[in-house]
Amino acid sequence: xxxxxxxxxxxxxxxxxxxxxxxxxxxxxxxxxxxxxxxxxxxxxxxxxxxxxxxxxxxxxxxxxxxxxxxxxxxxxxxxxxxxxxxxxxxxxxxxxxxxxxxxxxxxxxxxxxxxxxxxxxxxxxxxxxxxxxxxxxxxxxxxxxxxxxxxxxxxxxxxxxxxxxxxxxxxxxxxxxxxxxxxxxxxxxxxxxxxxxxxxxxxxxxxxxxxxxxxxxxxxxxxxxxxxxxxxxxxxxxxxxxxxxxxxxxxxxxxxxxxxxxxxxxxxxxxxxxxxxxxxxxxxxxxxxxxxxxxxxxxxxxxxxxxxxxxxxxxxxxxxxxxxxxxxxxxxxxxxxxxxxxxxxxxxxxxxxxxxxxxxxxxxxxxxxxxxxxxxxxxxxxxxxxxxxxxxxxxxxxxxxxxxxxxxxxxxxxxxxxxxxxxxxxxxxxxxxxxxxxxxxxxxxxxxxxxxxxxxxxxxxxxxxxxxxxxxxxxxxxxxxxxxxxxxxxxxxxxxxxxxxxxxxxxxx
Length: 510
What we know:
With 510 residues, the protein is α/β, with parallel strands linked by helices. It is built from 15 helices and 18 strands. The protein is globular, with a radius of gyration of 22 Å.
């Protein structure tokens, strides 16, 4: 590419092709702007990426999705993007899409739809009927306070009032009932947001729970199809997407606005506006620490990220393990909130189990994914190493042994849930916090970015606008993580450039 003097100036240059970057690019391209998306890796999509080993397909981040029933929020967003009818989806079990399972073998299912969910829970805990009804009403009440979640716009700030933000999830659930088992069941899927007893706000729990109750589906053959279809939509509307383009710095005009971004190979991309889909603290590193106010920089760089994960992928021998059309949240603990502060000696104490839906699978599963918490400090000794498809590096034998030992521990625990599963396994591989760090581009492999804190909500809120006049942020750190949270965040980012009332009307009319 020539120097920036003779190259095209885009209306928007977007750094990072995670869902937030792709969603912003789609919205802006559909609104007639010229858009370029720059991705450092070989594959688009951030947490939407999949990979295959020995002909088995594995998701890295997205194992199921909610809000996809007719008329629900994500259903309409995907319709608006023009991708809904192109996605291969498989509806999960109506009577129990998630199963909360405990050490004694007891199981409790979440049914789809708020009414069925409520009735099923009351069936398990008839003596706690009023607590369950209060809980379900509270979820509906809280979700009603987030305009975009309900496809409406409000002139208020998108970050809600203090009362909503300061309500703690653990405390609220504990206030409803003395029944410890019911408390554990209500919070049993808290791996979805890496719940921390002292910190996680109830609104995070509520928005995520209601989303899955509004239509839980698996992506057939993996979640990367979202990235594939959105990138087609971007190109169809004139946008361009470049892979293996790592942005390392920026050049500024005399007014302090970004003129162009600079890649690690010296190439430049010029733009009127820039959107970073990279973690805010990494964004500060890329665009220059000196460009941000010290107070802001210190706050963002000292925010605590949610914990990382160890992800085990198991491929089965043919026709040996039945396909599960539900997920299992397995807890070997008396309190489901304690998994995040695990003891390495008894790890893993809490984990998520799913069997991906593959187009060729019928009665039997091709594979299984098991996701459990892992602190990034466990892989610190290899933190200087780096390994992706775009930048292949090596890690030593000690790292491979570390992974292998951890895989064995996970499979030993799985034997408690599925006795004899070891005999059915063809091969196993895994991803550590370093894998997520390298592919997602944050500093510690954090699963869900900045941890929300009910004790000081304002501190963990990050605005889409920055001090650099033409640099905006998007992604999971803006509103909420997950497919729905990141999609909503992209709309919030784009409201700076597009009439929000007209835009949301287009979503509703899609």
